Please model this.
Amino acid sequence: MRGRRVLVRADLNVPLDGETITDDGRIRASVPTITTLADRGAKVVVCAHLGRPKGQVKAEFSLKPVAVRLRELLGRDVAFATDVVGDSARATVDGLQDGQVALLENLRYEPGEESKDDALRGDFATRLAGLADLYVGDGFGAVHRKHASVYDVPRMLPHAAGRLVLAEVEVLKRLTEDTERPYVVVLGGAKVSDKLGVIANLLSKVDRLLVGGGMAYTFLKAQGHEVGGSLLQEDQLDQVRGFLDEAAKRGVDLVLPVDVLAATHFAEDAPYDVVEATAIPADREGLDIGPRTRELFASKLADARTVFWNGPMGVFEFDAFAGGTRAVAEALIASEGYSVVGGGDSAAAVRKLGLPEDGFSHISTGGGASLEYLEGKTLPGLAALEG
Ligand code: ADP
Ligand code: MG
Model:
């Protein structure tokens, strides 16, 4: 390892407010692999993406603020390259001594990174692979992407999985093989369409499925209730009716909200009332689950031996509508079972609410990646590491 140039694909895709990192969880999760490699004397070249600059250099997507935070968390210097595979990247990598760390600029500044064209992606991957002797895949949040840095580069260099990826996969295995029962999954968040695949697959595996957040209204509507101005995906109603039938057939306890906080409009300070989930007024929208639902969900979680939670129960970004998410998080913390939080916003909510991260068995860094794994899909980035 000493003296070898190791390209580490990390997931440093953190939320930014201007240049301020509002949640550094993913950077912290990347530290163990980078530290291990540097301690062994490798020249560590870290690459990652931030946001969606779509193949263009845009200052607001620069990884510069991330380099600063990474330096603090590693407690060692991080050389920052101002491009991905250009002059700066080559000079920065050439300048590394054994045990030193560099970070390349945002991978997605390069159109080749995300290209669907195998040749274009391959060209960029060749240039990226040229910066290193070995590859370590540790960007769990991106392993479901068929991108150059995730899928093509590991096929060009001797490769291994990093510590974060290994830990995340172990957790997901525990959620899919020989799962301890009762197995309860809690789903929330904004869109049903994001979670269709996982619902379809989990209905054959779970004992209970609790649905809250914005996606619950499509379920309530599918049962024939009016949901006012709440989030609704009309085009998913048939699918959702299918899920309701299937859950009944399989004896899965599919639990929907019984009451909601119905607000006059979508705002932090919007007036609201607690109403029955089956009687949401036409001029109101549900922004959080209500107090009876919080209790109901907590009771369904109390004896769980395994819990997977993805998606906030309400608009937790507004303090007034964060209570449902807090209640579910606290029920997971209270439970003695194996509890896993997946999803960028869910993990951010846990930290924003000031809840102890060690109250959960695992907080995943990957939303889409965890969901696709639980859907039973092959993840390109994991397949490439196994090959
Ligand atoms: P995750 O990133 O954890 O997978 P999602 O991205 O699916 O979660 O959903 C998170 C978003 O869902 C949050 O921004 C939250 O405000 C929104 N949300 C939750 N409940 C509601 C609701 N009732 N109405 C509108 N948006 C909601
Ligand atoms: Mg999200």
